[in-house]
Design a protein that fits this description.
By secondary structure, the chain is α/β, with parallel strands linked by helices. It is built from eight helices and nine strands.
Length: 273
């Protein structure tokens, strides 16, 4: 029977629509995937600030996840903002129970502005419960610094940090280097027992970068759900996000860090045979 490539995003809600669940579902839909969701937290935020966060109770998060997974075949799961340790444990339990085809965890502990978004006690939960069951972990540089308690300020230290995360138990790590602002940007992919790969892209000057991390991880999950290899999915996702940044760089949404243009060239909903 034909069906759609289906992605489940587990993340927080962004009330201004640029990141979190909203960015995830826009990305999945724009790339021809079918998006489902489970919300971990509600936020009151805009393009300038996160005003308050209201975590969803763990028992209700579990009900959301079971409602989707008991009924719909999910090809990939993207995990973003988690909210609480209790929510993290629920997510780990559900992933272990249902064993989806691909799991990407974007460890949202620091925003693109460097703001810390997760409590310190979440660190051990990431390392002990979530990273071992993830097919890919996608930290930005600030998150990797928190995870490893080390300095990361160059391509060389990015490669070392990604390799260190593999040594500590991750299957694959895409360390995002967008904070190393230069004419060329670098992301580093480390995988167990494989050569470290470096992905290069051009720097695009824009004040509209809200939700770039959410968008990238969701794009990777979508391309994986459509049957691509991990390096292919990363290349396609990076091409998509660069185009979304370029297409949205001159638009003004709010008075702060605005969103990407997720729908610059939407793809019709694909069908898996």
């Amino acid at each position: 029977m034909n069906r759609y490539p289906t992605i489940l995003t587990i993340a927080g809600s962004d009330s201004c629509g640029g990141a979190g669940i909203q960015a995830d579902l826009k990305t999945i839909g724009a790339l021809g995937g079918y998006g489902t969701s489970a919300i971990t937290a509600l936020t009151a935020q805009n393009t300038m600030e996160v005003r308050t966060v209201f975590p969803v109770p763990a028992v209700f998060l579990r009900e959301q996840l079971l409602a989707v997974l008991d009924d719909i075949q999910v090809d990939a799961i993207k995990v973003g903002m988690i909210g609480t340790v209790e929510n993290a444990l629920v997510i780990a339990d559900i992933i272990e129970q249902f064993k989806p085809g691909f799991v990407v965890i974007d460890p949202v502990m620091a925003s693109s502005s460097g703001t810390e978004l997760a409590a310190a006690e979440m660190l051990s939960v990431f390392w002990e419960r979530l990273f071992p069951i993830a097919d890919l972990v996608t930290p930005n540089m600030d998150e990797a610094k928190l995870l490893l308690s080390r300095k990361i300020d160059s391509l060389k230290t990015m490669q070392e940090a990604a390799s260190e995360m593999i040594a500590k138990g991750c299957r694959a790590v895409l360390l995002k280097g967008g904070h190393l602002v230069s004419e060329r940007l670098f992301d580093v992919l480390a995988q167990k027992d494989q050569e470290v790969l470096v992905f290069e892209s051009a720097y695009i000057a824009s004040e509209n970068l809200h939700g770039t991390g959410c968008t990238l991880s969701s794009a990777i999950a979508t391309f994986m759900a459509q049957g691509n290899s991990l390096p292919e999915a990363i290349i396609f996702a990076k091409e998509y996000i660069s185009s979304a940044i370029e297409a949205g760089k001159n638009a003004k949404t709010g008075n702060g860090n605005g969103p990407l243009n997720h729908f610059f060239d939407p793809i019709p909903l694909r069908v898996l045979y």
